[in-house]
From TrEMBL, chain A:
Originating organism: candidate division WWE3 bacterium GW2011_GWE1_41_27
Record's protein name: Aldehyde ferredoxin oxidoreductase N-terminal domain-containing protein
GO molecular function: iron-sulfur cluster binding; oxidoreductase activity, acting on the aldehyde or oxo group of donors, iron-sulfur protein as acceptor
SMART domains from the UniProt entry: AFOR_N
PANTHER family in UniProt: ALDEHYDE FERREDOXIN OXIDOREDUCTASE
Pfam families registered for this protein in UniProt: AFOR_N
Residues in Aldehyde ferredoxin oxidoreductase N-terminal domain copies: 7-175
Top-level taxon: Bacteria
InterPro entries: Ald_Fedxn_OxRdtase_N, Ald_Fedxn_OxRdtase_N_sf, W-dependent_AOR
From TrEMBL, chain B:
Protein name: 4Fe-4S ferredoxin-type domain-containing protein
Superkingdom of source: Bacteria
Source species: candidate division WWE3 bacterium GW2011_GWE1_41_27
Length: 280, 83
């Protein structure tokens, strides 16, 4: 089992405070939905809105989703948001953002790496953060859109933003990730990118998720449910032929310096199921 | 002969950032800090239209621009040879 601490940005809307916590004991949850469910258990009483990325985000193609975990009136939902935000969270050096409490006045959360500014809603979120390195989630008419386009199934984000009195979230990431064996990493990146034809979605000319060349029409509304390994990594469901191949997954994790065993990967679905059962 | 990476068809850009990430990889960087290509959403585009704008740092010419052109899935770039 690898022992890389998970870095969580916890934002308390009620107190307008934030802190970065490093957890040594969350390795078995890998990331994405696994990490998101565990954080939901840990912060359950605070009714959190959780954005969790996985070990492949920002590093490998077709791994561009962010797991969003919410408590929908007692039902824990996991939904997957496309666009650029998974890269921004990863490049902010974070594994997850946990937003809890309720803001007294409407607020925009301007997150840069591990820092948060609580901004007045009169500010235009598009002017916050750093251009070319930010993702903007904001109210657009009756919808909450990421990058003016991407949304989540069932309007779950709209409900969360309303309940928590949030009018926008801007995430900027300016950190760099070190990889020990860069040549091996690059070789693997190219091999996976060359498997583009194995994706079960057609290439298109729609706005694309970052680090995915497909421009498909499916990413707009995100994903819901599905394979827990994919969604812990957090890869796109249409790349399942690639990222449910345990050999590929191990190669990716290994080149990034993770030391998971087959047992760790095999026990993940059960671990997630048990966690979900405890909080449902 | 030096080569120049030109943004010839910005209207084709789908915002995937493959070009920016490739350029960073050539610099052996993972992340967008100091990126030589930046991709922005054009917030001035017509209602309902999502368009992207790109900016290239001239230092890009020190990289393998053919690889950057090739990784773009939509053919946004052209490579020009200069004297």
């Amino acid at each position: 089992m690898e022992t890389r601490p998970r870095k969580i940005l916890s934002i308390d809307l009620t107190k307008k405070e934030y802190e970065v916590k490093s957890f040594e004991d969350l390795n078995s949850y890998i990331g994405g939905v696994g990490l998101g469910f565990k954080l939901m258990e840990m912060y359950y009483d605070k009714n959190p809105l959780i954005f969790a990325v996985g070990p492949l985000n920002g590093l490998f193609p077709f791994a561009s989703k962010t797991a969003v975990v919410i408590n929908n009136d007692g039902v824990i939902e996991d939904i997957y948001l496309g666009g650029s935000i998974s890269l921004r969270i990863r490049y902010a050096g974070l594994d997850a953002i946990v937003i809890h409490g309720v803001s007294r006045e409407k607020a925009i959360l301007d997150i840069t790496n591990a820092g948060v500014s609580f901004k007045d809603p009169s500010e235009d979120p598009e002017t916050l953060g750093l251009p070319g390195k930010r993702s903007v989630i904001k109210v657009d008419g009756s919808k909450i859109l990421l990058g003016g386009y991407f949304t989540t199934p069932e309007h779950y984000l709209e409900k969360e933003f309303t309940d928590k009195n949030i009018s926008g979230i801007v995430v900027t990431g300016t950190e760099l990730i070190n990889i020990r064996d860069f040549d091996k990493y690059e070789d693997l990146y190219k091999k996976i990118l060359n498997r583009k034809d194995e994706l079960s979605v057609l290439e298109g000319t729609y706005p694309s998720c970052s680090n995915c060349p497909m421009g498909c029409g499916k990413s707009k509304t995100g994903e819901m449910g599905g394979n827990v390994l994919l969604h812990s990594l957090v890869a796109c469901q249409y790349a399942d032929r690639i990222y449910t191949d345990v050999g590929v997954v191990f190669s990716c994790l290994n080149v990034l310096g993770y030391n998971y065993t087959h047992e760790d990967i095999e026990s993940l679905p059960k671990l997630i199921e048990q966690t979900l059962r405890r909080i449902s | 002969m030096p080569k120049i990476l030109k943004i010839s068809f910005p209207e084709k850009c789908v915002g995937c950032e493959m070009c920016a990430i490739e350029a960073q990889r050539q610099l052996r960087k993972i992340g967008l800090d100091g990126a030589l290509i930046r991709v922005f959403r054009n917030t001035n585009s017509k209602l309902g239209n999502i368009e992207y704008a790109l900016e290239i740092d001239p230092r890009i010419s020190s990289l393998n621009v053919d690889k950057i052109q090739k990784i773009c899935p939509k053919g946004v770039f052209e490579v020009e040879e200069t004297d």
